[in-house]
Amino acid sequence: MALLEEHDSAEAVSIRAVANAVGVSSPAIYLHFADKDALLDAVCGQYFDRLDEALALAEDDQTHPLDRVRALGRTYVQFALDHRAVYQFAFGHTGSDGTPMVDEALRTAAFNRLAGTVRELVDIGWVAEASSGVDEDAHTLQVALELWTVVHGVASLMIAKPDLPWGDDLEVAESVMRSGCLGRALLPVVGERATGAEVERFVDDVRSADGHRAK
User: Fold this and answer.
1) Is residue 36 within 8 Å of residue 15, measured between CB atoms?
2) Tens digit of pLDDT for each residue in 53-88?
3) How large is the angle between the packed helices 196-209 and 169-190, nearest 10 degrees?
4) Which overall architecture, per CATH, does domain 47-195 show?
């Protein structure tokens, strides 16, 4: 990971450079990896493992699943920004077996951690249960994918367009994750196909009941 971050490009990282960095000969590298592609596969795996370690620490002191989801989103973006080159490579790389690494990401402990927290949100009623005839696991996966899309999109845009007026990166990350969770919670209440006018009436009713009607 360090060499990829240093050179900012997988093409610039050679077997010889890796060997020099770890203090062995180039042939010694081939005792562990068949070729450079296999080595790069391992780099991607290391990225996802370290990401999961960071996510585990982030959610460790959060008791409510909603707070955990927000912490996971914030940490996901922070980790991506801290490892920009590896993040971009990991999600754009095709493994030596022909499998895109973005597909592999869905099988990592990091993604499963998010999906598990989404399952808890369903269990407590924050996220609606699966519709009749829809498998619960498939429903959980769908919601987890929606939330992952949110933070993955934010991280990717912040890396690709750092000059945009993002404000505080992590506050933005937490805000969009919170919005995604709140939106998911409100969908069954407002109606998944509610019109703009219907949503506006719902919001006004809530504000009115709470003494905060918009003027």
Assistant:
1) yes
2) 999 999 988 999 989 998 999 999 999 999 988 888
3) 100
4) Orthogonal Bundle (1.10)
